[in-house]
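Possible regression after last week's pipeline update?

I re-ran a chain I had predicted before the update to compare outputs. Posting the input and the new output here so someone can diff against the archived version. Not blocking, just want to make sure nothing changed silently.
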Amino acid sequence: MDVKYGGKRESWDQEKHTVDEFVDVFRQFDSTTTCAFYVSMIWCAAEDVKIVCDALRATQHNNIQHLYWHKLDHNQAKPQHCLIPCLECGVIAYHGVANNFSTRFNLPASIHERHNVVIGPGQRAYDRDANQEIVNKCQKPAYLSEWFASKFCSQGSTVLVAGSGAGGDVRGFMNQDLNVVAIEQEERQWAATGANLRAHKIAGDLTMIFTYGDFRERLMQKDQIDIGVDQHRCDKCPPPDEGASYKFVAMCMECGAHLCNEHWTNSANSACPVCTVVHVQPVQKID
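New output (post-update):
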């Protein structure tokens, strides 16, 4: 669900929603589904996050979580004394009771792959109508809903997209081979989106997202180039023979030393073997 931002740039975005309006909408959704458990996702303006969360709580949603989309190439014009707003906010919540949440979702076990930030490019090409006018200037890239589906939807699930706009969210769910029900109030957007979606070819856009693995690889490359650190070598072990591997498993929180199993200790009030500083929790375990 992508709600009104009250930006007044479009005829359909003049007024923001109230808590009561959100409550009514969420109750309508709940009354039309036979699912005992489902996940809700709402994109909203940053100042409206509390309003959305209050409405979710009032409609018996649980596990309310914030989600952020970082648009790496966002280039909105702003005076030099202002920061460029490159984040969009969303809220994810569960409705109903379910046992073993983790078995219902496809969330990775690694905490590094479960951050609540999706990093990727902004919308690069906007859909146009029969008159070659942009259908929706707020169109979101398909990889966002594709990411959501890959994490929270089971194969063959049915997804309701309220406020489908230009169809970016619909495309992402289609890419994940889900059944999609789209609702759009504005006739112009609905007509253009229907025509464009009929020509849509199933593809995958998840590769556009900047992952933790990408970041870790870049960080390791930077460290090796700038300061000559071997990210796979314990700082207390002698230089390894060619082909040998002395991979570190922990890092000292005081000096940043990398330590292998032989030199890593998790006991209280122990000292780092490199900087010799005594810590209550001397090192951080690295997955």
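Follow-up from reviewer: compared with the archived run. Residues 230-285 form one domain. Marking as no regression found.
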